[in-house]
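Narrative of accomplishments. A recurring question from our advisory board has been how the design workflow behaves on a single, concrete structure rather than in aggregate. To address it, we present the structure tokens for one chain from the evaluation set, followed by the sequence designed for it. No filtering or post-editing was applied between the two.
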């Protein structure tokens, strides 16, 4: 009778391990990044907001001159900072002094 319990415990452990491995393998390794709606970037030396599909002209241009910002911020703005929503935009604008 005690051997039966040991075998049953071993079987449960094996099933638990198999289930854990299956869940790990079926789950995506990296979640897809949400598509950004806006991009904040440098435009003619000023801070500007662009919508996703329209990279030619900004939606808004702000009175923040990028050459006055720290170098890391300038580099980020030159590459473009993707934003998902207006709340993120508002937080960044506050960081930049607006």
């Amino acid at each position: 009778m005690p051997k039966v319990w040991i075998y049953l415990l071993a079987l449960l452990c094996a099933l638990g391990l198999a289930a854990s491995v299956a869940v790990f393998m079926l789950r995506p390794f990296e979640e897809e990044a949400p598509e950004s709606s806006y991009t904040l970037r440098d435009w003619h030396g000023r801070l500007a907001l662009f919508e996703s599909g329209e990279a030619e002209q900004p939606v808004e241009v702000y009175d923040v001159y990028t050459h006055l910002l720290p170098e890391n911020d300038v580099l980020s703005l030159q590459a473009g900072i993707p934003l998902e929503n207006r709340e993120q935009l508002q937080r960044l604008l506050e960081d930049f002094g607006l």
